């Protein structure tokens, strides 16, 4: 496949990208690719009043090497009712960035916002040659990846980035052992080191 020069990574909430494809984004940046993160809500329903989740995700993404961050403030937990605005927003990003690859959310995720992001992405990113769905804790148990990225050199950075989400530190899936275990499991499935898995909506070779 040709080298990825530009990528758009779309997350419904702060921390989705870091959890689902953070190490892959770090690897892409290290390879010289330009990565833009599009975070669609401020995650206010999951953070409490004492934390700025937008600041957390910006710091975490910067640690991964992603400095181009677009923060939208669509209503958290209600993205399914904002589908036209969601599509228009993602379309505008694609038109400006012209990404070689888009990372978006999983079609059958349990969270309604995640499913809405997927539905909007497959419309808005129809001209993009590669559209990959990534894994988050709410993707289970139906997430069965067929594309795997060996990210062993970047797992430590992913762990460090997720530590910057102070508002989410109490969640089991944010613990270091959980992050490393999932990466080792995905790699073991295909005889690799620690990996992140993806389900393609579209992959043009």
List the main descriptive attributes of the protein structure presented here:
205 residues, alpha/beta, Rossmann fold, seven-stranded mixed β-sheet, 38% helix, 19% strand, globular
Number of helices: 6
* Residue share in helix: 25-40%
- Elements, N to C (H/E): EHEHEHEHEEHHE
Q: Percent of residues in beta strands?
A: 15-25%
Calculate Rg over CA atoms: 15 Å
Major beta-sheet overview: 7 strands, mixed
Strands in their spatial order, largest beta sheet: 3-2-1-4-5-7-6
Kindly report the name of the CATH homologous superfamily.
LmbE-like
Q: For the residues shown, what is the average pLDDT?
A: 95
Q: What distance lies between the first and last C-alpha atoms, to the nearest angstrom?
A: 6 Å
Helix and strand content put the structural class at alpha/beta
CATH class: Alpha Beta
Total strands:
7
* Gross morphology: globular
Low-pLDDT ranges = none
CATH topology: Rossmann fold
């Amino acid at each position: 496949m040709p080298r990825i020069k530009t990528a758009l990574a779309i997350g419904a909430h702060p921390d989705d990208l870091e959890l689902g494809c953070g190490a892959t984004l770090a690897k892409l940046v290290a390879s010289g690719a330009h990565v833009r993160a599009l975070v669609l809500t401020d995650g206010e329903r999951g953070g409490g009043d004492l934390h700025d989740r937008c600041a957390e995700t910006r710091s975490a993404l910067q640690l991964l090497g992603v400095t181009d961050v677009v923060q939208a403030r669509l209503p958290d937990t209600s993205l399914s009712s904002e589908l036209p605005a969601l599509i228009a927003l993602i379309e505008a990003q694609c038109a400006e960035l012209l990404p070689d690859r888009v990372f978006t959310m999983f079609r059958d995720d349990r969270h309604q916002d995640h499913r809405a992001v997927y539905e909007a992405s497959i419309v808005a990113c129809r001209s993009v040659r590669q559209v990959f769905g990534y894994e988050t804790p709410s993707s289970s148990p139906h997430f069965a990846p067929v594309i795997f990225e060996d990210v062993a050199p970047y797992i430590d950075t992913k762990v460090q980035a997720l530590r910057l989400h102070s508002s989410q530190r109490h969640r089991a899936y944010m613990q270091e052992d959980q992050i490393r275990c999932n990466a080792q499991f995905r790699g073991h499935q295909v005889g690799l080191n620690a990996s992140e898995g993806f389900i393609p909506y579209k992959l043009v070779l």
